[in-house]
Amino acid sequence: MPYCQTCGGEHAESDSFCAACGSKVGSAAAPVEGQGVPTPAPVPAPAPAPAYVAPAYVAPAPVYAAAPATYAATPAKPKGGAGVLMGVLVGMLVVLYFGPIPMYNAGWWDIARATEIILSIAMVVVATMAIIRCKAAWCVNYRKAFKKYATFSGRADLREFWSFAIVNFVLYLIMVLPIADRYLGTYVFGWLYYLSFAYPLYGLAVLLPSIAITVRRLHDTGRSGGWYFISLVPVVGSVVLLVFLLQNSDGENQYSPGARPAYVATQAIPAAWLADPTGRHELRYWDSRAWTAHVSDAGVTSSDAL
User: Fold this and answer.
1) CA distance 27 to 232
2) Exposed (0-12), middle (13-18) or buried (19+): which is 143, by Cβ within 10 Å?
3) Closest CA to 147 of 283, 256, 247, 293
């Protein structure tokens, strides 16, 4: 009788394959009990995969984008222009002081007086051009006060405020001393008296910038601009205001957005030159994550940390 070669089951002569295991039926003898077909060795289970450990995050070094071409390509004004104009200004002062003397001695009163008036007007124009072309820090800060002509928001640090205040005081002095000299009858300044025509004009032009930069300076010390009116109190008020204006910056306060603009929390701001949140400069570079130390004033880039 044929037997299955795999499971040892009995089959009829006509069977070719085992119905139990599907193996071919042969004519082998019946298997001895206990000596069946050897069971194949069990396949070992695959070893479990090791637990995933995330690599430690290393913050990439910040890469600051280059300044836009509009600022990099801005042509710089000639550095020597202000020096040349200052030299011309001094020369005109000397001519105005000594030039009309021989004309008066010769009896040319009308010609001498016309010369004094023309030279006085020309000197004011030259002095204005010199300040505009000057690249020194005090010139930049002085011009910045006029660019923010009536801006009462933001801040102004010690350097920005006192650069404007000292230049303003010197210009007032130049215009006022010849007037006092003429009224006192000392005539030390001679014909520089004609420069006094610019005094009321300059006073009107500088009135709003002076108040605005004082309010921004008070903001920089953490005080409201309303403290400006303490100067209306005779003597004591002016002294108190002066003490406030001499104090150092208060750091980040309610008058500046700080190191991160308020609108960044709701929308992504791409890297770009934006208005300086500290108020110390015209523009500051935002690198899409934080403000940098790169600043720009009148197209001239420099560095000033927050």
Assistant:
1) 128
2) middle
3) 283
Per-residue pLDDT reduced to its tens digit, 255-281 = 765 434 444 444 456 778 888 888 788
> Taking the model in full, what pTM does it have?
0.52
Amino acid at site 49 = A
Helix (H) or strand (E) holding 26: strand 25-26
> What would the two tokens of residue 143 be?
């011009």
- pLDDT for the residue numbered 276: 84
Question: Given this model, what pLDDT does residue 210 score?
Answer: 93
Return d(Cα 181, Cα 22) in angstroms, integer.
Answer: 131
CA distance 73 to 76: 9
Quote the crossing angle between the two packed helices 198-220 and 158-184, to the nearest 10°.
150
DSSP per residue over 257-297, as a string? -TTS-GGGGTS---SEEEE-TTSSSSEEEE-SSSEEEEEEE
Strand partners, 272: 286
Q: Which amino acid is at 293?
A: A
pLDDT beyond 90 at 243: yes
Residue 251 CA to its chain's centroid (Å): 15
Res 125: pLDDT: 78
Separation of alpha carbons 110 and 199, rounded Å: 24
Q: How far apart are CA 218 and CA 33, in angstroms?
A: 108
15-45 pLDDT, tens digit per residue, is: 777 766 767 766 555 555 544 455 555 667 6
Q: Name the helix (H) or strand (E) containing 253.
A: none
